[in-house]
Amino acid sequence: MSQFSTIMKRMFTCIALIAVIMLSLLPGLAVPTAADAATPIYSNLVTTPGANETRMGISWHTGTNITAARLGIEERGNPASYKEFPASTRNNHGIVTEFTDFSYNVHQVNVTDLKPLTTYDYKIIQGAETSGVRSFTTGDTEKFTFFALGDIQIGADGSNNNREWQTANWLAALDIMTSNFPRASFIASAGDQVETSYSSPNATNVNLTQREYNLLLSANRLSSFPIAPSVGNHDVAPLFRDHYNIPGGGNISPHGSGAHQFDYWFRYGNTLIIVLDSNRSSAGSAADRRPFFESAVAQNRDATWKVVMFHHPPYSAYRVESNADKENMRVNWSPIFEANGIDVVITGHCHSYNRTYQMLDDVPLPNQQWLDDDGNIQSDDTGRKYNAVLNPTGIVYFALNATAGAKFYMPGTTGGAEGAVPRYHTAKYDQKQLPHFSVVDVTESSFSVSTYQIDGTPATAGTAGSTPDNAARIQNDNGITLVDKYTIYNVQPVAVTGVTLNKNSMTLASGESEALIATVDPNSALNKDVTWELSGDAEIATVDDIGVVTANDTGKAGTVDVIVRTVDGDHTATCNVRVLSTEDAEDDEKHDSSSSSGGCNAGYSLYALALVAAASFVIRKRKNKYLN
User: Fold this and answer.
1) Taking each helix axis from N to C terminus, what angle separates 599-627 and 582-594, rounded to the nearest 10 degrees?
2) SS3 assignment for 75-96
3) CA distance between the termini of the chain
4) Which of 88, 222, 450, 510 gives a 20 to 30 Å CA spacing to 190?
5) What CATH number was assigned to the domain covering residues 494-581?
6) pLDDT in tens, 239-287
7) Does the predicted TM-score (pTM) go above 0.70?
């Protein structure tokens, strides 16, 4: 065997060994094993945002024989960080003694001291039993995204078949949302998570409600993705608080005659979110609860953005303005919002999309400063031209369309009676009888709400609810269509003027990868987002969405261009990538070997260089994954 072949063999053996060692240490490999797929020792596992971004609420159900449990959690890849939290345990509100179909104990844990941008693995421990591994990843607290959803309402219209297809829609919607926007940190749900509500439990309504919750939480999707729910008119049942570990202590305020009805707030990064139960909307109720509301604001005066979420919209394109639910919230609560500097209100209930102008004292304020596509300050009297405002006056209200697609109401109608559309407050409305979701992007200087329609087969039910025969249907591979985007800026954004790359050219052998680094100018630019694209034969090389260029292992040689493009301003920079053929790569190796002094020493120098390169490549790949 030649000296070169021996060196190459040693080199590739070492690269493989280092890759195995490095990959074994990477956080991404701490995933559930086959044993974890066994029947879980719990049901209805769900995560909720904690009082702030360093906390997480976790809740699950077990049989009534399990009276104590705890939760073990660690940073992925860091066993030394392992800690356990004891669960608080209670019976499901004594209902078990009367209705036995769904008898269970509720276990809840509040996890603390979480770090941003970190994946955590956790397991449930109940006596001698230990569950499989579940996980969640915390988000960035300085620049983050969350979902805002209208009515999910599993079980709407009451038929058993309806519940099954609607659950399929809901799970497909979750897949579509999280695959298109994987960096989102949590869901803010504006009420009516399920259909069946009751004030007096009986065997029928308790069992129906619990079945709907079982479907809502099926497949444990929300065990890794926190949901912050508000109480809708279909959620007013004691089972609501059995399924969510709402932030407690000073962040929660029970009110009304039932302990299941409450307001709460939480802080995520620079944003305060206050969640209200709008089923109690009278003037007296608003006055009683105002101190709690204003205390939440007072404790978070440093919050850049202040958001309120509840179910019944003060403004919507569906139902007349004299509708009691709308009028109560508009008359009794909107003045409280205005007096406390609220920026955005998120609601549901009307199963139809409506965004208002900036509203103050029930008056639309269309003549705001707004920004055109080039970032120039403009003004107009209609208000419908703008979708980006600068330091606006008043509050913008969103009434969100249905998420799982069982009911859609047409704008301008109420019980079949036509009303004027758009309403006096309406800047944008939409209804195509397909599910919606909204993506909220938050930075220190901007708050942006982008609302998307999930493409699929629209419902044909007109203004009423749907049945399995005329319902909207979606699949988890459906596309999405932007319906509306609205951005509030608190400073005038600085436009992007250009972009550069750390390399104008690179050479790769088959199978090699290297990361390009883009620098967006100026450094003070507000939107530094970029996209990556390939110009040339994708069989030669590819580039991923964070700029890692990979020469394909097909052996095909040639050149391609990798282009980075700024979202703001469409500025570009290009790197020319040359991929060597196998023969060229071998010639380069021979040349390097023969040109070095001392054949054996040269071989070991190449060997050492390979070790460093292999370790650098693996680390770089993982680092870029986490920067994604």
Assistant:
1) 130
2) ECCCHHHCEEEECEEEECCCHH
3) 44
4) 88
5) 2.60.40.1080
6) 888 889 987 656 777 654 444 467 899 999 999 999 999 988 888 888 9
7) yes
